C-alpha cells in the first residue's frame, strides 16, 4: 500500500468518525457541539473528494492484515451493517423519553454511537426557574435563542448549568409548550409554559423504574 493510499484511507476514516460525532450530538441535542463539528466534517469530506479521481482503496483493502482474523466479504459486511443501522434507527425513534425521579427531571436518550441509553438530569427547581424566566421575558410566539437567554439563574440567584437549561428546553418542546423556529430559534406556545401547566405536565411524568 502506497503512502497516498494510506493517507486517503485516513481521510475517509476521519470523515466517518466525524459523521458519527455529528449524529451523536444531534441525537443528544448538543447543538453547539454540532455547529463546531459540522465544518470540520465538511472540510475533511472536501479533502477526500479532491482525490476522487485517484485510486481509493476499499475499507477492507485499507485495513492491515491481522494473523488469524479473516475479513468478511464486502457484500456480507454491507448486509450486516445495514441490518445494525436499521435496528439502531428504529430504536432511536423511541427517544428521547422524559421521566421523573423524585424531584429531578430525567431525559433518557439513545446514543447511536454506543447503541445504549444515556441519562441527563436536572432538579425540579431549575426546570421551573427556566420556565418562569422564559415566561417573564418572552411573549408567546416571540422567537428567542438560548444563547441570548443564558445564563439562567434560580430563585436564589445561583446560576443554572447550561446543560440543565437545555434539558428543560427539550422537555418543554416535548410537552408542546415550546416549538423550534428555524435552526436556533424557539417560541413559547400561548400559555403552555405557565406554572400551572408545567406543574400538570410534571405530575404526568412517568416515574423512573
Layout: helices, strands, pairs:
Elements: H1 3-27, H2 31-49, H3 59-62, H4 74-92, E1 97-101, E2 104-111, E3 116-123, H5 124-137, E4 144-145, H6 146-149, H7 162-174, E5 178-181, E6 185-188, H8 195-203, E7 206-207
Parallel strand pairs: 1-7
Antiparallel strand pairs: 1-2, 2-3, 4-6, 5-6
Helix pairs in contact: 1-2, 5-7
Summarize the structure.
The protein is an alpha+beta fold and 209 residues long. Helix content is 51%, strand content 16%. The chain is elongated.
Q: How does this model look, in words?
A:
This protein is an alpha+beta fold. The protein is built from 8 helices and 7 strands, in the order ααααβββαβααββαβ. The strands form 2 sheets. The protein has a 4-stranded mixed sheet. Helix 1 (3-27) packs antiparallel against helix 2 (31-49) and helix 5 (124-137) packs across helix 7. The longest helix is centred in the N-terminal third of the chain and has 25 residues, at 3-27. The protein starts with a helix and ends with a strand.
Supply the helix-strand structural class: alpha+beta
Structurally, how many domains make up the residues?
A: 2
Overall residue-averaged pLDDT value: 78
- What's the story with the biggest beta sheet? 4 strands, mixed
What would CATH call the class of the largest domain? Mainly Alpha
Give me the CATH architecture of the largest domain, please.
Orthogonal Bundle
Helical content (DSSP H or I, runs of 4+): 40-55%
With helices defined by DSSP (H or I, 4 residues minimum), what is the helix count? 8
The global form is: elongated
Low-confidence stretches: 52-88
CATH topology of the largest domain: Arc Repressor Mutant, subunit A
